[in-house]
Amino acid sequence: MDNGQFCQGLVGAESALGRYEFDPLGFSSDYPYLVPYFREAELKHGRIAMLAWVGLVVPDFVRVPGERYSFEAVPVSIDAHEAFSSATGVNFQILFWIAVVEFCCAKKVFEWNSLEVAGDYGLTGAFWPKDEEGQKRMRLAELKNGRLAMLAFGGAITQAA
Questions:
Q1: Cβ–Cβ < 8 Å for 56, 78
Q2: What is the pTM of this model?
Q3: Spatial separation of the C-alpha atoms in residues 74 and 103, rounded to whole Å
């Protein structure tokens, strides 16, 4: 499976200043058979961080109807977890839907252990470019946005704590 390229030739080493092959612990060269799992994990964490960033920012402007969720009851969205921790139904729903997504995705990861389909759930539809260069550009944009979101969410939570 090792083709001699950095991270098996996957998109993601490109930067504005040229190629930036960052793998200080050498995981991609020491464990080339795990590179699809590494890419799947990076995409999943990036997508979750993008959703988490939206979930952190949007409730400061828009709230679900109801007195319990009002701006007066929970003035800052970072305090929502403490305010709703007694509501086990809310937390159970979150964990339940995360488990459903994880179980559905885990089967795909173990069956399709290949570089070409890492992170592809077939949900691209009309948004996916038809040409090869456009697809590469979209994959790179998703990786970069996910990496930025992971840093941004981590920084926002650290600042809010």
A1: yes
A2: 0.76
A3: 33
Residue 76 has pLDDT above 60, yes or no: yes
> DSSP secondary-structure letter at 68?
G
Residue appearing with tokens 């509501």: 87
**Paired tokens of 11:** 């998109």
Angle of helix 88-111 relative to helix 35-57, nearest 10 degrees, comes to 150
Beta strand 14-15 with 18-19 is antiparallel
* pLDDT for res 150: 93
Distance CA 33, CA 54 (A): 34
pLDDT in tens, 99-113: 887 777 776 666 655
Q: How far apart (Å, rounded) are the C-alpha atoms in residues 119 and 105?
A: 9
Give dist(CA 30, CA 34) in Å, integer. 9
